[in-house]
């Protein structure tokens, strides 16, 4: 979740944006054969894609933290099971799952450095792709102290825009992007693109809760409080929920108010010496536990609704 110069990476997605069915298909495939990605021809048949796409699916499974690979052996993580397991959301039917997957990508400073940089560090609300590329070059040279090839950085910018920007005519991979619907990056007629902070009233509370829990758990000693400013803007190389979800300050405060309303025994906002902070009583919750509780509640609600319909 934090920038590390020695471990920053770009371009490992083979220039393929994440498609809707890739994570469920890949996660299911390794459940049946943990070594499927060591068998390119078999993986192509099982996943129904070409060789380069197989590599891209493996990358996206890793960058989201759903799966680990050790000497070719794939292993679902606790996070992967909590998100895509049979008792969770194996077919990506819940918008909250997609918002959380977006957070997992955009907060991964090591495996998806270009995506992390864009959502946490790139400040231009309106831009052209050339401006993004130039700014990413400067970031790589000045902050990472590394000279990445222009073609590699360009592939990151192109893949990012195709994955998030709902622009007609960009190709089939865009039409199947799980994130285009959120409007985090949009075409801006006459100006290229825009990526604006908005209140985002439809952001599921569990997505914000999960992101905050991950941020707190990543702190040394597991912090129990964070300034609202740190949740809103990237600080000291960390990902910020407000930046990743493109929230205005009012939008973030509304989201925090919903969390407090849902669990007033755990969350509280306080002003301490003029510093507005979110406090957690009893320490930060386990992000995986947050997901388990969410999908249990979703299943219970669906079951109840089905019973009412049947009655």
TrEMBL record:
It holds the Pfam family DUF4007. InterPro entries: DUF4007. It comes from the Bacteria. Residues 10-295 form the DUF4007 domain. This is DUF4007 domain-containing protein.
């Amino acid at each position: 979740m934090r920038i590390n110069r020695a471990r920053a990476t770009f371009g490992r997605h083979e220039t393929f944006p994440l498609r809707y069915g890739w994570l469920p298909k890949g996660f299911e495939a390794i459940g049946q054969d943990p070594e499927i990605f060591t068998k390119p021809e078999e993986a192509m048949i099982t996943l129904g894609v070409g060789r380069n796409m197989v590599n891209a699916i493996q990358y996206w499974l890793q960058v989201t933290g759903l799966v680990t690979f050790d000497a070719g052996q794939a292993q679902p993580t606790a996070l992967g099971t909590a998100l895509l397991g049979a008792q969770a959301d194996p077919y990506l039917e819940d918008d909250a799952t997609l918002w959380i997957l977006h957070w997992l990508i955009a907060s991964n400073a090591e495996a998806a450095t270009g995506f992390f940089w864009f959502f946490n560090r790139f400040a231009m609300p309106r831009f052209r792709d050339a401006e993004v590329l130039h700014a990413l070059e400067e970031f790589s040279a000045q902050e990472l102290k590394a000279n990445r090839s222009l073609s590699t950085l360009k592939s990151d910018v192109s893949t990012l825009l195709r994955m998030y920007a709902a622009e007609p005519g960009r190709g089939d991979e865009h039409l199947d992007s799980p994130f285009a619907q959120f409007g985090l990056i949009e075409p801006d007629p006459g100006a290229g693109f825009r990526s604006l902070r908005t209140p985002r009233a439809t952001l599921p509370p569990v997505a914000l809760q999960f992101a905050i829990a991950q941020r707190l758990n990543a702190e040394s000693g597991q912090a129990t409080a964070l300034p609202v400013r740190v949740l809103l803007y990237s600080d000291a190389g960390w990902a910020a929920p407000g930046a990743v979800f493109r929230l205005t300050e009012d939008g973030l405060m509304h989201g925090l108010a919903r969390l407090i309303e849902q669990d007033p025994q755990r969350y509280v906002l306080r002003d301490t010496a003029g510093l507005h902070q979110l406090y957690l009583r009893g320490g930060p919750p386990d992000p995986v536990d947050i997901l388990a509780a969410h999908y249990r509640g979703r299943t219970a609600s669906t079951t109840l609704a089905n019973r009412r319909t049947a009655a």
